[in-house]
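Fold this sequence, please.
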Amino acid sequence: MAVKVFMLVMSDSHIRERIEWFPEEFINIFKGKIYDIVVHAGDLVDPEVLDFIKGLGRRIYVVKGNMDYLDLPEQEVFEVLGYRIGVVHGDQVRPRGNIQALTTLAKSMNVSILISGHTHSPFIATRSRILHVNPGSVTGIWGGGGSSPSPTFIELEIWSTGEITATLYELIEGRVTTSTQRFVIYPQS
C-alpha cells in the first residue's frame, strides 16, 4: 500500500518588517488541514511566525534567511520516504534563483529535492534529476529583484511510489487559485 507524506512549504513572510501578518485566506487553508511537515525557507523575520507555524504540522524545518536575526540553521537536510530533502534560503547563490547554481548546491547537499526561497517568486522545476521547489513569498511582499506581487505557497504530497505532487496556491485579487504538477522522482538508494 502506498504511503503519503503531506507538506506545507512557504518562505519569505517578512512579518512585522514589511507586512503585519499572513493573508487571512491562507490562514483558513492552513488551519483546515493537517500537515505532516511544515517547511519555511527563511526570512520569517518575526519570532511569532515560528510560533505560528509550529502549530501547523507534526514536524517543522525552518532555515535562516538573509533578513532573519533568529537563531536558525543556514540549511536543513531531512529524509522522507527515502527522499533526502534539503532546505536553504537561497541567498547562497547568485543571481537569485539561478537553477544551475541551486542544482550544484543540491548535489553538494546530496539531496534529490531542494526547497529554497529568496526570490519571492514561485517556481517548481527539475534539473539533473533534482526537484527544485521555491514557494515564493507567502505574504506577497516585495523583494529585491523581480518578485511576484501575489502571495504564494506550495503543498507537496510525497508518495512512497515515487510520485510527487506539487500544488501552487496563489492569492490574486482576494481569490485563491491553484495549479498542480506531478513528478516521478525515485528516492536515493
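The first helix runs from residue 24 to 31. The two ends are 20 Å apart (CA to CA).
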